[in-house]
């Protein structure tokens, strides 16, 4: 159990609040503590234990909330802080254990209502209830010194008693949330109607939009459209946004980050958000005919979502463009090598046609290749994980040939060295960099990489960076992979070679679902495979660092595989916040 001393809050000046890098550093430092206290192997804790823990949880939460509220109170816009808070709260409220979820829900609701019960900002932050008995200088938590020369009377009613929680502050808070109470009420009342329409709503939307703007078919994955995956993903995103705004008061930023990254990979523009908004509202009219008040409310909700996305995506575009060797949009590359890696996986190496440098990327990110596959007049984009180590003069991807894969079959069967393709800059938020940041403080923090099939691809650059890159170290890595058999097991020799080169800190275990007669099962690190069947983590439970709370887990593969692995890890007591995964294709509910 952590002591109260750990949660001592620093005193910030106004300059600290403006200096977001300083504040964010503290946010990152506090976030593991909040999770440590709330989710510290709590599966067997009784309610009495959780109640004793609650004051420590609240104190930790106050540390995070303190930073976000300072920024809001000063009419600064610091979405990173609010998003970090929202992410932490979602992790807490979403813990699989019922007892912990109940306690975490109490925390979330308390944070949401505290301001309404407080008479001034200081009381709000320090959770002090008897405002009348304390002067400004005696508040347990002070925001800044009254002598700070940067402060003035324009800062939300500053008086010698402190920052009053006036209507002006409440107005600023509402502006930060972005939606009026009337809008929220209307959305809350009509959300069940949209939910009842289900994916029929989004199917109608796409038909409507593509009929009016057929050029957008060059941006969307036609296979995902025909299989209904894109319709399901859009409906889930709309529903999640509405629910998040209604329940948490914020957009689902963690969910949207992956969407924003993919939108940048697809070169989505702000004008296209206008088109989407037009046809979402048109679909509501066509299917529900709800009246102008409802349309206005959903327009306001979509406007908040689109406004956030446009701003965030412009930040991502600028970041990609400003890197050494970076660019915006598409860039011409030549296929310089094409190598078979298994009976179903082929490796493709690309270099830029202009011969200029290319930007580096975070291990786990992907590039987007634009093609005109045989049999279609539509340009088709596909995202493929980069498997080469960051910092090289080329980009390498590995593509599995799917039986009905339009682009994968084209790349396997119809391309040759010398062919040219348009590629987008690397994007994606599935990266091992978080582990590298953590390791600057936790020397023994392990990483567990789990994959199945072609889900191995993002793990290759992760493992290569951890063991061969500029920041390579002896920190432990557990590599777990599942394949159909030895002929379909891509990059087996490469991974086995890394394990041999790092026998003390790389452990690998492999499952073959239907091994071939010549596949040899073994028990050591050098064996081709170790278990028959699908991946069962109980078979390697002694290897999984369940006793290390700073361990991070990354998994990727077919959707059924990822759902299974996510549930197995949660059942073993791994914290949800430690789980990181990548979905190939439209977002799906994994955990």
In brief, what are we looking at here?
The protein has helices at 14-18, 20-38, 47-73, 79-93, 98-117, 121-126, 167-177, 181-197, 199-212, 222-227, 229-248, 253-265, 270-288, 292-322, 406-414, 433-439, 457-468, 492-501, 559-571, and strands at 158-159, 162-163, 331-340, 345-352, 366-371, 380-385, 395-400, 420-427, 447-452, 477-483, 506-512, 531-532, 552-556, 579-582.
Features:
Elongation Factor Tu (Ef-tu), domain 3, 6-stranded antiparallel beta sheet, 6-stranded parallel beta sheet, 591 residues, globular, Globin-like, 4 domains, alpha/beta
Structure overview:
The protein is α/β, with parallel strands linked by helices and 591 residues long. The protein has 4 domains: 4-177, no CATH class; 181-322, Globins (Globin-like, Orthogonal Bundle), CATH 1.10.490.10; 331-427, Elongation Factor Tu (Ef-tu), domain 3; 433-582, Rossmann fold, CATH 3.40.50. It contains 19 helices and 14 strands. Helix 3 packs antiparallel against helix 4 and helix 12 (253-265) crosses helix 14. The protein is globular.
């Amino acid at each position: 159990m952590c002591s109260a001393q750990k949660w001592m809050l620093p005193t910030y000046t106004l300059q600290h609040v403006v200096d977001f890098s300083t504040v964010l550093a503290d946010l990152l430092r506090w976030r593991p503590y909040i999770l440590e206290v709330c989710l510290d192997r709590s599966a067997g804790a009784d309610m009495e234990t959780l109640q004793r823990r609650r004051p420590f949880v609240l104190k930790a939460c106050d540390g995070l909330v303190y930073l976000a509220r300072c920024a809001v109170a000063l009419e600064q816009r610091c979405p990173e802080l609010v998003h970090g808070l929202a992410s932490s709260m979602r992790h807490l409220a979403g813990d699989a254990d019922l007892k912990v979820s109940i306690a975490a829900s109490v925390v979330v609701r308390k944070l949401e209502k505290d301001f309404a019960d407080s008479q001034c900002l200081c009381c709000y932050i320090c959770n002090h209830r008897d405002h009348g008995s304390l002067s400004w200088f005696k508040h347990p938590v002070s925001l800044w010194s009254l002598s700070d020369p940067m402060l003035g009377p324009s800062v939300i009613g500053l008086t010698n008693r402190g920052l009053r929680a006036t209507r002006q502050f409440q107005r600023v808070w509402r502006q930060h949330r972005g939606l009026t109470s009337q809008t929220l009420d209307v959305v809350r009342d009509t959300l069940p109607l949209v939910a009842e329409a289900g994916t029929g709503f989004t199917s109608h939307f796409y038909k409507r939009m593509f009929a009016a703007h057929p050029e957008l078919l060059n941006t969307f994955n036609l296979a995902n459209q025909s299989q209904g995956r894109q319709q399901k993903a859009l409906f889930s995103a709309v529903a999640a946004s509405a629910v998040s705004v209604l329940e948490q008061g914020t957009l689902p930023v963690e969910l949207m980050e992956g969407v924003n990254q993919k939108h940048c990979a697809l070169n989505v523009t702000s004008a296209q958000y206008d088109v989407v908004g037009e046809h979402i509202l048109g679909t509501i009219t066509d299917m529900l005919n709800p009246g102008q008040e409802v349309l206005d409310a959903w327009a306001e909700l979509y406007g908040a979502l689109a406004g956030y996305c446009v701003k965030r995506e412009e930040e991502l575009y600028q970041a990609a463009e400003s890197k050494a060797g970076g660019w915006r949009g598409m860039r011409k590359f030549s296929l310089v090598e094409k190598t078979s890696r298994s009976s179903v996986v082929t490796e493709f190496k690309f270099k830029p046609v202009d011969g200029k440098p290319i930007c580096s990327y975070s291990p786990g990110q992907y590039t987007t290749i634009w093609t005109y596959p045989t049999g279609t007049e539509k340009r088709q984009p596909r995202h493929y994980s980069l498997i080469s180590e960051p910092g090289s003069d080329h980009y390498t991807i590995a593509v599995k040939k799917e039986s009905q894969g339009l682009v994968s079959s084209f790349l396997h069967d119809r391309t040759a060295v010398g062919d040219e393709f348009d590629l987008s800059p690397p994007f994606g938020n599935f990266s091992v960099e978080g582990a590298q940041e953590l390791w600057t403080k936790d020397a023994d923090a392990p990483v567990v990489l789990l994959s199945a099939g072609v889900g191995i691809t993002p793990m290759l650059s992760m493992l290569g960076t951890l063991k061969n890159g500029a920041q390579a170290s002896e920190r432990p890595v557990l590599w777990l992979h599942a394949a159909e058999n030895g002929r379909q097991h891509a990059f087996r020799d490469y991974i086995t070679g890394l394990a041999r080169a790092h026998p003390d800190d790389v452990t690998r275990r492999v499952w073959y679902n239907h091994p071939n007669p010549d596949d040899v099962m073994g028990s050591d690190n050098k064996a081709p495979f170790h278990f028959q069947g699908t991946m069962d983590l109980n078979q390697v439970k002694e290897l999984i660092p369940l006793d290390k709370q700073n361990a991070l887990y990354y998994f990727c593969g077919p959707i059924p595989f990822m759902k299974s692995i996510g549930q197995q890890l949660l059942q073993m007591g791994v914290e949800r916040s430690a789980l990181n995964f990548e979905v190939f294709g439209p977002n799906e509910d994994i955990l």
